[in-house]
Design goal:
alpha/beta; Rossmann fold; 2 domains; 7-stranded mixed sheet; 15 strands; 34% helix; binds 6-O-phosphono-beta-D-fructofuranose
Length: 364
């Protein structure tokens, strides 16, 4: 198929490497197909409100090492369920999908490339069913998307968390403290697990394995007995004590995203541990530092590969698919196979066995 005009949008929470994708899509579309590339701004808002910019070779110059997305993003504007506050401060929902469809037609696009996480890709699937020729590119620091081995942004986030753990080790050792690092990961603990291993954590706590406080304390005491009067713990934001629940900052009903916001599980654990040991406990929340800043080389290469492959898939008319990494190859996964499924750390994950084999506590 002759690709003349390609649209691209980036939705959901940002991560490092999105600009590498935008650059690759633009360059591949121009070099391989002499196409015009239109960048829709601020996720699906760009489609709803017809906000866009031309992505020329000049426009994507020098953006490879840049964090964030030059197109902007939002993790709230779902066109099918657009949540806004009314005059009384109540959340009301509207369906703006007809406006979005209208913009797509007005821009005379032959294909729409959607870069996003689970929520953004599900919306893309809805548009695909309405007739928009969509190709998706998976993106999230949480690495929790089904169908792909890795999402770009994940490795950079793991590096940020690993650097933080390295630093917590030295200050923790000096003060003989328990140092807790809370990292992102709502329902999948990939960042905590990989950073915990890379950063030499003593205990790793994940959403997939509700932790037993007595096991955490036992691990700390055992290290004390062996002459290690300090501990470094990494905990994913979605982790919880066995029999307990996640620490929720805002419920789904009160957020414009319509999803609950987590955060605070590290401080909660600190309070629980403090009462039971004779050491000071400190907690660091890494937060959005995991999402910002320059992508590492892995994420630049992966983003570039996925971007170029998405253009090729569009040229072949393979719409309704997500491009994915099935190491060492790139492949296409039908959007209906994803259907909001999240890839958690499985029970039989080799990384869990490795962690325990080298003496890392998992709180179980
Ligand atoms: O999707 C990635 C993620 O980093 C989650 O782990 C986290 O809960 C969420 O984004 C936070 O997003 P925001 O603060 O942008 O709403």
């Amino acid at each position: 198929m002759k690709l003349k005009r390609i649209g691209i949008l980036t939705g959901g929470g940002d991560c490092s490497g999105i600009n590498a994708v935008i650059r690759a899509v633009t360059r591949a579309a121009i070099f391989q197909h002499q196409a015009t590339v239109i960048g829709l701004e601020d996720g699906y808002d760009g489609l709803i409100y017809n906000r866009h910019q031309d992505l020329t070779l000049d426009a994507v110059k020098d953006i490879l090492p840049l964090g964030g997305t030059i197109l902007g993003t939002t993790n709230r504007g779902n066109p099918f369920d657009y949540r806004e506050f009314d005059a009384q401060g109540k959340i009301v929902s509207s369906d703006y999908s007809p406006q979005a469809m209208e913009t797509f037609k007005k821009l005379r696009l032959d294909a729409l490339i959607v870069v996003g996480g689970e929520g953004t890709l599900m919306i893309a699937h809805q548009f695909y069913r309405l007739g928009i020729p969509v190709i998706c590119i998976p993106k999230t620091i949480d690495n929790d998307l089904e169908g792909t081995d890795y999402t770009f942004g994940f490795q950079t986030a793991v590096q940020v968390a690993t650097d933080a753990l390295d630093r917590l080790h030295t200050t923790g050792r000096s003060h003989r403290r328990v140092m807790i690092l809370e990292v992102m990961g709502r329902s999948a603990g990939w960042i905590a697990l990989e950073a915990g291993i890379a950063g030499g954590a003593n205990i790793i706590l994940l959403p997939e394995i509700p932790y037993r406080l007595d096991r955490v304390l036992e691990k700390i005491h055992r290290r004390e007995e062996k002459g290690n009067p300090y501990n470094v713990i990494v905990i994913a934001e979605g982790a919880r004590e066995i029999g307990g629940s996640e620490i929720v900052r805002e419920t789904a009903e009160t957020t414009l995203q319509g999803v609950q916001r987590l955060g605070g599980v590290g401080h909660d654990l600190a309070a629980k541990i403090s009462g039971s040991i004779d050491r000071e406990v400190r907690c660091t929340m890494l937060g959005h530092t995991q999402r910002g800043g320059t992508p590492n080389s892995f994420d630049r290469v992966l983003g570039t590969r996925l971007g170029a492959f998405a253009v090729q898939a569009a040229a072949e008319g393979r719409f309704g698919h997500m491009v994915a990494l099935k190491t060492p190859h790139l492949t296409l996964v039908p959007l209906e196979q994803l259907a909001g499924r999240v890839r958690q750390v499985p029970e039989d994950c080799e990384l869990l066995r490795t962690a325990e084999a080298i003496g890392i506590g998992l709180g179980r």
